[in-house]
Design brief:
It comes from Achromobacter veterisilvae. Belongs to the LysR transcriptional regulatory family. This is LysR family transcriptional regulator. By secondary structure, this protein is an alpha/beta fold. The chain folds into 3 domains: about 80 residues, Orthogonal Bundle (Arc Repressor Mutant, subunit A), CATH 1.10.10; about 100 residues, D-Maltodextrin-Binding Protein, domain 2; about 90 residues, 3-Layer(aba) Sandwich (D-Maltodextrin-Binding Protein, domain 2), CATH 3.40.190. Helices cover about 40% and strands about 20% of the residues. The chain is built from 10 helices and 12 strands. It has a 5-stranded mixed sheet with strand order 4-3-5-12-6, sandwiched between helices. It has a 5-stranded mixed sheet with strand order 9-8-10-7-11. Strands 1-2 form a two-stranded antiparallel sheet. The longest helix has 28 residues. The chain starts with a helix and ends with a helix.
Length: about 290
Amino acid sequence: MQWTLEQLRQFAAAAEAGSFSAAARRLGRAQSAVSTSVGLLEADLGVELFDRARRNATLTPAGEVMLQEARELLRQAGALEQRALSFAGGREARLSIALDEALPYLVLDAMVKELAERCPALELTQLNGTATEVADYVEQGRASVAFHFDRGDPGPAYAHRYLGDVAQGIFVAPGHPLAALPEVGRNDLARHRQLLMQMDGVDQAVLSPTVWRADSSYNIAAMAANGVGWAILPLNIAEYEGYSNALVGVPCADLSLPMLSVRSLWLRGRSLSETELWIQRRMGELLRLGAP
């Protein structure tokens, strides 16, 4: 078979316009050229696509089926062309990023949606993990850049950039003894089990003699929701749909909680791509806006 994409375009145009003359006007071609092109396509395929006994361009049953095939091929050809134009313009074909699981999901959802619209030809891989894990993904070469909560000096192998902040607070289950107090002090916190993030090489504020640790903010939130202890959590974790009714904030006037900084992280000496720079910039904007 020697049919061409141009013949498929003219076939689809005639079927959609309802006549060869209307298709010719839409395509900026002579009616005879469109009719001839469709006739050659029919001869090549060995299938009659239009019922010539009728005045308008009416599809035969076989033509109706072939129209769906033609549209799919034209869609694939258009996608191929757009992807080639994107690559020719200097955008990368693939990108792997690592995302801290504790980052605000509204920010990540909005960023990914906009990225899909901005870079339709991109093949994206997202790796999720704890703040420590996403840094390891970069070091291992599994991701080119990571976005996570700042948990201290990442070491000389990395370059990093501050993007924004997320507030945090103290949370317990509604039935926890601390939830019944109008205001909590450090001594009150010390009487109950503290739930802490497990991060090697990072000093954290231990305020209770009894501590349980986990390497996931969501695991810590789950333990707090089950009444196991109290935890300092990013507000977005405590307000997440699964925990919004299972956790309550505890005010503590004599404990000042700093904002949690969000940063991007990549191997030192490596230049970031245009897409990676856009992700950095847009994530910072969304963090400042609080996401949509």
